[in-house]
Amino acid sequence: MRITVLAGGIGGSRFLLGLRSLGHDITVVVNNGDDITLFGLRVCPDLDTVMYTLGNGISAERGWGREDETFRLKEELAAYGAGPSWFGLGDLDLATHIARTMWLREGVGLDEVTRRLCERWQPGVRLLPATNDDVETHVLLDDGSTVHFQEWWVRLHAEVPAREIRLRNAEQARPAPGVIDAITGCDVLVLPPSNPVVSVGTILAVPGIAEAVRATAAPVVGVSPIIADAPVRGMADACLTAIGVETSAYAVASHYGARSAGGVIDGWLVDDTDAATADKLSAEGVRSRAVPLWMTDVAATADIATAALELAAELRR
Ligand code: GDP
Ligand code: CA
Q1: 17, 36, 137, 199, best to mutate for ligand 1 pocket (most atoms within 8 Å of CB)
Q2: Which of 37, 68, 80, 178 gives a 20 to 30 Å CA spacing to 266?
Q3: What's the 310 CA to ligand 1 centre distance in angstroms?
Q4: What is the reported pTM?
Q5: pLDDT of the residue at 21
Q6: What pLDDT, on the 0 to 100 scale, is given for residue 90?
Q7: How far is the centre of ligand 2, averaged over its atoms, from the C-alpha of 46 (Å)?
Q8: pLDDT by residue (tens digit) across 274-311?
Q9: What pLDDT does 317 receive?
Q10: Looking at residues 130-150, what average pLDDT do you find?
Q11: Which tens digit of pLDDT belongs to each residue from 40-68?
């Protein structure tokens, strides 16, 4: 089967490890909202997290960046007072950003740059940025100032309430080559348990992508990133609060909305503990199924992916 997945970083790539083990033809459209220019280098955190994770190069301990990493360059930069110091750029990781920035400056598109980087990492899936254009998620804080999403997330730990979260430059952005075809030409479209606001939400904010999701003949199945009213890892609740959505499996599904009612999903996998939401979801046109949603290892995650594909098959019938 041809399966397309709209993914962020850590949650998306963990899910992909399970899905990939089932042996399908997988295309991943990755969020660009986290992208940032640091020390003159273009950094694409979610693309790199997916690439390193599926390429067996991710730091198992941190969940981002490279295994066996050192931070000597970062210390040298700090010694010059050249900031920012809050973003962890390891020495091995920096080679990726240097190669990417060099190719981008030569006029190569981010999709082709990503393909070149993946030639080394062999992730076993096709990785596409959502867009080749420079978009970045910015966060409007309560005091009226605006910061890059990374600064809010990494430096401020999302502890300062956000008033608004927006993908800057979205209006001018176009989907990267291959993205629309991957959405309209697949057999199943999956929204993995990625952050609904700053991962999936920012992919859908690129003009044309949400429209393609609404139009595809493929069933669209989402996996809840929320279990028992809590984000499993990270601070997704802070993002949901900023857009006025409750932190619950039901509220996220309702926020995505049923495609039959103008939304973007047909089916929704919830954790066993959230099984009681089925009736409410069904009344809104979303068919749900409850299974254990903890991605503890590849085998458990493969079971989640299998359940998503089974729900998709039911929806196709
Ligand atoms: P990021 O870009 O690195 O923040 O990663 P994603 O946006 O792809 O995914 C982050 C989300 O994954 C978090 O907000 C969690 O809600 C979700 N998540 C992490 N681990 C698990 C898990 O084991 N099960 C489920 N259902 N969701 C998870
Ligand atoms: Ca991210």
Answers
A1: 199
A2: 178
A3: 21
A4: 0.98
A5: 98
A6: 97
A7: 5
A8: 999 999 999 999 999 999 999 999 999 999 999 999 99
A9: 81
A10: 96
A11: 999 999 999 999 999 999 999 999 999 99
Ligand approaching nearest to the C-alpha of 293: 1
Atom of ligand 1 nearest to the CA of 293: 26
- Both tokens of 176, joined, read 């990267």
